[in-house]
Amino acid sequence: MQTIQTKLLVLGGGPGGYIAAIRAGQLGIQTTLVESASLGGTCLNIGCIPSKALIHAAGEFAKVQDFASQSSPLGISLQKPALDVVKTIAWKDDIVKRLTGGVGALLKRQKVQVVNGWAHIVDGKSVDVRGADGTITHRIQCEHLLLANGSVPVELPILPFDGDKVISSTEALSPAQLPKQLIVVGGGYIGLELGITYRKLGVAVTVIEAAERILPAYDAELTKPVQTRLEKLGIKLYLKHQVIGAVKGKGAGVEIRPAGDESAKVVTLKADQVLVAVGRKPRTEGYNLESLQLTMKGRAVLVDDQCKTSMKNVWAIGDVTGEPMLAHRAMAQGEMVAEIISGKTRHFQPQQIPAVCFTDPEVVSVGLSPDEAKAAGHEVLTAQFPFSANGRAMSLEDTEGFIRVVARKDNHRILGWQAVGGHVAELVAAFSQSMEMGAYLEDVAHTIHAHPTLGEAIQEAALRALGHALHV
Ligand code: FAD
Ligand code: NAD
Description:
Blueprint: E1 2-11, H1 15-26, E2 31-35, H2 41-46, H3 48-68, H4 85-109, E3 113-116, E4 118-123, E5 126-130, E6 136-147, E7 151-153, E8 166-167, H5 169-172, E9 181-185, H6 189-200, E10 204-208, H7 220-233, E11 236-238, E12 241-246, E13 252-258, E14 267-271, E15 273-276, E16 280-282, E17 296-297, E18 300-301, E19 314-316, H8 327-341, E20 355-357, E21 362-367, H9 370-375, E22 380-386, H10 391-395, E23 402-408, E24 414-421, H11 428-436, H12 441-445, H13 456-465
Helix pairs in contact: 1-4, 1-8, 3-4, 3-6
Bound molecules: flavin-adenine dinucleotide and nicotinamide-adenine-dinucleotide.
């Protein structure tokens, strides 16, 4: 067993942990990072990156299929396309490999010691690392312990994961072959991003959502175009339905019933696979976290605005600290903790944490929605600009959706942005920057936006809120 003394010990090499370690290395803090799987965590290996790669591949396939069915108004026609899913997955895996390899190189450059194995907490200042066979390979002692252990998918007791018929997003991102029929339980981020992807790849998809609408985390107006698209794609949707049983035997399936109505008729749905995507939970088990007796917030580790836990010099960031479980939040927290440990004064008090759902069309929310702003006591101005009035959207043949701005009525300070439409994920930087810089409607309305771009819709939304949009 090797003993390591280090100033900062990071548990987990996901976006939270690896960013904390890189920044700590830049600041000259002696840092060790323990990771049991591949560097990059959920995000790079089995989350953000592979899902977006498959979303792109599926979008390209669907586009070519549209051309092949002679429906393209651009006058392009093709033979019926074919998909080699093994090649698609290999392409996705190559992107993952390049990125995770890059993380390793960045950590090496900052002289971060990476230890591969499963960390088991001994106390707030020491951790044992076990190899695959369970033997302890390292004892690491530290001044600061940073928990960046991430999250795991929520399992439904009635429908436990078996890696084959009942799967999580992890298996759905690496299929050896595509099922003919897929049932998706959960119409949230993962259920819809991957449900749409599978449908575009030719799979018959049924989505079961317990709430009365899809993507309940976003406001109803924003998600309406996504629901319309699901219908056009032929995705069957059961809203306000609950899974009450699993179908056993050949294939897979579920029994469902309208939520809260025990007398309603049970519907049996059959498929080749069931993808369960009903949320993720902080990973707090299996590494003796409980021995630290940290104050928890539900299933998550409670932290203050500096990511300090209830134990001195024990910090926590990212998904292990709960919602919103997003990679960019984990990264921002990781960077901040490294700076605080180096002696800088920092607090995690962002004006906004952007949320982007990579459905078709994409959905973006930054800051407050109109209802949230009103609930917070603001009198608000809101305005929408439709992509149907934007020249670039027309030339991209993607005119569905809109951009909406929310601002204070008294002084025009911007409180939030929402958008739905093709490519709106790429506009999010403008939304986030305007909010972090405390912009007013006039700042955005008087900024010259390049023509022809989708970004002009941002300026037009601000102009419209001021009462003088130019193109509607
Ligand atoms: P993780 O990325 O989960 O990393 C934690 C790491 O810790 C893991 O590598 C794990 O192996 C390691 N670990 C845990 N315990 C131990 C231990 N005891 N010993 C050693 N190693 C340990 N977010 C977005 O912002 N945008 C997206 O588009 C997006 N898409 C997603 C798509 C999917 C399918 C999924 C599942 C998630 C997606 N997310 C997305 C969420 C995002 O992946 C997470 O918010 C992010 O990865 C959290 O980072 P983290 O560092 O907190 O934890
Ligand atoms: P989610 O919370 O986004 O969606 C879960 C959905 O399942 C909800 O709509 C919920 O109402 C529904 N649900 C819950 N229990 C159910 C049941 N028994 N039957 C039917 N429906 C049920 O969770 P997710 O899609 O699993 O994603 C997990 C997390 O991963 C997200 O919350 C997000 O933090 C992260 N993520 C982010 C992105 C992104 O940023 N683009 C993409 C994927 C995942």
